[in-house]
Amino acid sequence: MKTCPPKYQAFSIIEQLVVVAVLTLVVALLVPALNKASARANAVKCTANLRVWMNALHLYAPDNGGRLPPSQYTANSSDDATSFLWPYMGVSSKVDAWQKYFCPVKKTSDGTKSQAWGTYGFNSFISEKPLASITEPSRLIYAMDLASSGRWIGYSIIFGGKPQDLTEAYPKPHQRSVNVAYVDGHIEFSPVSQLMRGSFTRYTDYYLPTQDSMPIADAKFDR
After folding, report:
1. Which residues pair with 121 in a beta bridge?
2. N or C: which end of the chain has fewer CB within 10 A?
């Protein structure tokens, strides 16, 4: 007696559509979670890289009379704080430091990723300031995420400049926030609207006590 092979019934169109719909729903639920995880990983990487620059700062100062490195814009010069810090970072050049220790999600104003000019800006108000004169280093910002080619946290950023300057200066690469490094070396993760002017100008001729409650930008820059 011959046995008949089992018959397999193909999925109907409705069943296939149901499967596709379920898979689409699963992907829709997973993608945001994966994007958030990726953003968080990049934020951690960016924080770690900024910490390398801050470690270099605290190696540089004792070798240079206890002063912070120059961080003031100079016309026709490519020097900024990174020019003086990179020798303390175990790299062969400033460009090498930029390429190894940059924010991995930094973008230029046209939306393209860039490693040019580094990805952090350094406080121009305290350029070459003696560390000993800063009695509360945990309240004074030294560096933060800044637009590519920014490099200097100066008057136009802290006290307001052209709208496009603000847009480029605050890319909010990490879920509406930026990495902010203080002179004592600790790093915080903050929305731009919560950064006060006094945190940049303290111990300088630009400082007024009222600046401690004056944000450098409003909440629209947190978007």
Report:
1. 144
2. N
